[in-house]
Every structure is written in structure tokens, then in C-alpha cells.
Write a structure and sequence with these properties.
28% helix, single chain, 3 domains, Alkaline Phosphatase, subunit A, alpha/beta, 14 helices, Sulfatase_N
Length: 504
């Protein structure tokens, strides 16, 4: 077996043609759907970036125990399990979070990897004295900084070295993936992961993609929205959205290059292809930009998934409505190579769904560490917040105490205790670290970052836009029962129930 796994970041499902999107032309996603199974009810698990990738690699949810952090010593990793079974894996990525303190153990699970530099705040190019007079006029004040370690400054400097289309990180990322295929497509037993940060903010694309979405904006570069409430003028909002659309068009083009390679060399007959994303992104819907600050609306959590298995040609073009999640990817990749899933995995292989429609799970649990616990059964979504997110009892369970860019502080670690092993830690005790307001994550992607924190129930059949919270004690009780069952299955710690005021 051979497989290619394409992972985008922040790719909005509802903009893609196979899911009814028309605002951006995505003919190559349409081509992909003709060759693969399209999953209609695929959901996230843990968010944001690295928590989502931990779910993908390990096949289990992490957000009830841990925020953003590395793979743990007790974690399973599907590339590692494939290696142990004799299958070679290679990662090509421009996703620089893999190479920070909070992600440093993911890329090393692959047999080899290639890192393409230059996305967002990647500390790539050194410019001690940038031409600030020119640059301060060039970029909008909300995405400008002179601070040496600020992501805005790093991005501004990086973009000074990215001029030609061939120099864009996502373009180079796919080129490196195609180079792997050129050299290795006749070999057997390998998995290639092509992972690009696009269309994650900042929404920067070559000009030929941007020309299709002109807005008349005459101001400085404006392609990086804040995380939070929309407070920009309408013309500024349109410019931000247009730049996102341009990057989605770029992603479609890059996917098309890969599909062309599959067509040219008839890889469809012997190579699996999986295409998905980690989460979506709000572009003004619900009066918000981005993620992390608000309720987990469908635009964020309901994501695309396409799956082609060369052994199942009759599944080309089918659509599947079974409820699936990112935690199912690990078991699916293992199943492609006839490697058994391990006991700690909560996910299920999706390959049987290619043969026939069938239920996979009753519900899907998802969330951010310290935020609401959320559940869907495919009809309803229920988002249950702590009464006071800033005052809840909350602990990180880890043996790898790092945040995104830095280790846990001594102040955080001063309250740490050694907790007994959990069912999924393979007999290993873990640190139980209280979350404090002075933690670097607290106001960034933790409880203090929340702007919305109101428990809500939505009926997706009657209210797909989630504009009218539903009042139904009967449905809320049923969704609470489902939430509790899934928390039990995830070995949720006792305080996870207390913080949202439900019985264990």
C-alpha cells in the first residue's frame, strides 16, 4: 500500500464546491470528490493546531486533559506504528508550529521530514534593522510590530524574501511532495504527508489568485484579522475575506497539481489519498473573526474530508453521512496497511464506510482545553460552558510541560503534583499542574481568551446557521447524557465534570 495524506490548515468546508461552495472556484476539490468518498458530517476533536494534530496522530481526544503541547512519552503515533510495521513515512510541511516548544515531538515520529520555511511568524529570516519607514507604510497597524520576537514582525521580514510565486511556502511544500512522488512512486509501503499552513492567516497568496477577488481597497496590506469581535469597517472586512478567498484558490490550484500527478502516473490504482484540515475559520459569521474566542460554531468545527482507497474503486464519487472525527484518521491509516489499532485509540477506521453507509458513532465530543465541552449527534450541537471560565478548577496532565513558544513557568510548576497513571498513560504517572491566570496560555488560547461563554443548544436541521439557540429541556438532557458517556470513554478527570456542573 501507498498513501498520500494532504492536510490543510483553517480550510473552510462551506467554501468548497463538493460542499456547495460557490464564492471561490474550487474545480480541483470537485475533481477530488469524483475520485473519492466525500464525508458530509466530519468534525474536529481537540483544538486548535497542535491539539488537533495530537488527536490525528494518536487517535484519541486530548482537550479534556491538556492544552497545546507535544506528543507525550505514552502517546501512540500512527507514523511510529507504521514504522514498526515496516512502512516508511515522510512529512513535508511548512507548518512551523511543529518546530516550537509546544510541537517538538510530532515531526520526529516520521522516518524523514522536510521543513519549508517562511509561514506566518516562523523565525526564518534575520533582518536586524528592517527598513521601518517603508514597512510601516506598507502594512496595516493591526498587523505591524517592531518587536524582535513578535509574529507580526517576523512575518513582515519573511515576506521581504518571498516575491515570486515559486517562493511561497505552500507552493514549495507541494513541490517537495511531488518531488517525493517522482523519486518513490514505484516503491511500495510508504506514506507521504503533505501539510501546508495555508489557508491559515495571514492570507497571503500570489497576485494572480488575488486578482480574482478585487475589492477596491486602497489601504495598506490587510490580510490578517484579529481573533475576536468584528469591529472593522465593511470595506476592510471585505478586503480580509477577499484575501482568504485568494489563499483558498491557491490551495485548490496546489491540490490540482497533485491530482494531475495522480492522473499522469495512474496512482489512483495503487495509492490511497486522504485530504482534510484541522479546523475552519470564522470570516465575520456570528460577528466574529477566527477561532479560540467564541462558541465552537459549525464554520469552525464541521470540516471537509475526502478519502480514496484504490482497493475500493466503487467508492469513487460516493457521499457518506456517518458522523466521523479527526480521531478516526489514525485508525484509518493503520487499517490501510493492515496494522491493528492500539487499545488507547478512541477513533475508528473509516475504510468500512467506503463499502456501505453505516453508523460509526452516536456522537462526537470536541473542544478547547478550559473552554466549553461540546457534543453533536449530527442533528443537535450542545455547547456547555463552565459557569465562570476564569474561576474553574482546571489542571494540565502532562509529562511535557511546554506551551506553544515556551516551557511552563516555575510559578505554574510550583503547584504541580504527581498524579496516578490514567488508563491511557500505559502505567505512567503524570504531572497534575493547576492552571493559573498568569500562565502564558491563559489569555491566549485558554479560559481567559473567551469572549462568549454562554451554554447553548442548536438544532442544525431547523437552524443550520446557529442563529437561534434552542430551548428544549428534553433534548438538552439527552445531549448531556451523550456528553457524559463520551467523557467517560475519554477517561475525563473528575474535575472535568464538576467544571461544567454535571454528575460524573
Amino acid at each position: 500500500m501507498k498513501a498520500v495524506f494532504v492536510l490543510f490548515d483553517s480550510l473552510n468546508r462551506h467554501l468548497l464546491a463538493p460542499y456547495g461552495g460557490t464564492r471561490v472556484a474550487t474545480p480541483n476539490f470537485a475533481r477530488l470528490a469524483e475520485r473519492s468518498a466525500t464525508f458530509e458530517r466530519h468534525y474536529v476533536g481537540s483544538l486548535p493546531c497542535m491539539p488537533a494534530r495530537r488527536d490525528m496522530q494518536t487517535g484519541r481526544l486530548s482537550f479534556l486533559h491538556r492544552s497545546w503541547g507535544p506528543l507525550e512519552p505514552f502517546d501512540n503515533s500512527f507514523p511510529e506504528l507504521l514504522h514498526q510495521a515496516g512502512t516508511y513515512s515522510h512529512l513535508v510541511t511548512d507548518h512551523f508550529h511543529y518546530f516550537e516548544d509546544g510541537g517538538a515531538t510530532y515531526h520526529t515520529r516520521y522516518d524523514s521530514y522536510e521543513f519549508i520555511r517562511g509561514q506566518e511568524g516562523d523565525p526564518w529570516k534575520a533582518m536586524v534593522q528592517p527598513p521601518w519607514e517603508r514597512l510601516s507604510q506598507m502594512y496595516h497597524e493591526r498587523q505591524f510590530s517592531r518587536s524582535a520576537r513578535d509574529k507580526f514582525r517576523r512575518n513582515i521580514v519573511n515576506r521581504e524574501f518571498i516575491r515570486d510565486e515559486s517562493e511561497f511556502p505552500s507552493v514549495r511544500c507541494f513541490a517537495a511532495g511531488l518531488d517525493f512522488l517522482e523519486q518513490n512512486r514505484t516503491a511500495d509501503d510508504w506514506l507521504l504527508q503533505i501539510e501546508t499552513f495555508d489557508p491559515h492567516e495571514p492570507f497571503t497568496a500570489p497576485e494572480r489568485f488575488r486578482e480574482k477577488f478585487t475589492t477596491g481597497w486602497n489601504g495598506p496590506v490587510r490580510d490578517w484579522p484579529r481573533y475576536g469581535r468584528v469591529d472593522e469597517l465593511p470595506e476592510e472586512c471585505e478586503e480580509l475575506r477577499a484575501n482568504y478567498y485568494a489563499v483558498v484558490a491557491l490551495c485548490d490550484f496546489l491540490l490540482g497539481q497533485l491530482l494531475d500527478h495522480f492522473d499522469r502516473h495512474d496512482l489512483w490504482r495503487d495509492t490511497a489519498l486522504v485530504v482534510t484540515t484541522d479546523h475552519g475559520f470564522l470570516l465575520g459569521e456570528h460577528d466574529f473573526w477566527a477561532k479560540n474566542r467564541m462558541n465552537m460554531y459549525e464554520e469552525i468545527v464541521h470540516i471537509p474530508l475526502f478519502l480514496h482507497d484504490p482497493r475500493r474503486p466503487t467508492s469513487a464519487g460516493v457521499r457518506r453521512s456517518a458522523l466521523t472525527q479527526t480521531i478516526d484518521l489514525a485508525a484509518t491509516f493503520l487499517d490501510l496497511y493492515d496494522v491493528p489499532a492500539v487499545a488507547e485509540m478512541e477513533g475508528h477506521s473509516l475504510l468500512p464506510l467506503l463499502d456501505a453507509e453505516r453508523p460509526l458513532r452516536q456522537g462526537a465530543l470536541f473542544g478547547y482545553f478550559g473552554g466549553a465541552i461540546n457534543v453533536t449527534d449530527g442533528r443537535y450541537t450542545y455547547h456547555r460552558f463552565p459557569p465562570d471560565p476564569r474561576a474553574q478548577e482546571l489542571y494540565q496532565y502532562t509529562l511535557m510541560p511546554t506551551h506553544i513558544w515556551e516551557p511552563f513557568t516555575p510559578e505554574e510548576l510550583a503547584g504541580a503534583a504527581l498524579a496516578r497513571p490514567m488508563p491511557f498513560t500505559k502505567g505512567v504517572p503524570v504531572l497534575k499542574i493547576p492552571v493559573i491566570e498568569r500562565s502564558p496560555m491563559f489569555d491566549n488560547y485558554g479560559p481567559g481568551a473567551l469572549i462568549e461563554s454562554e451554554t447553548r443548544l442548536y438544532d442544525l436541521a431547523d437552524d443550520p446557521g446557529q442563529s437561534r439557540p434552542l430551548s428544549s429541556p428534553e433534548v438538552e438532557e439527552a445531549m448531556t447524557r451523550l456528553m457524559r458517556e463520551l467523557m467517560h470513554a475519554n477517561d475525563a478527570p473528575p474535575e472535568a465534570y464538576a467544571r461544567i456542573a454535571i454528575d460524573p
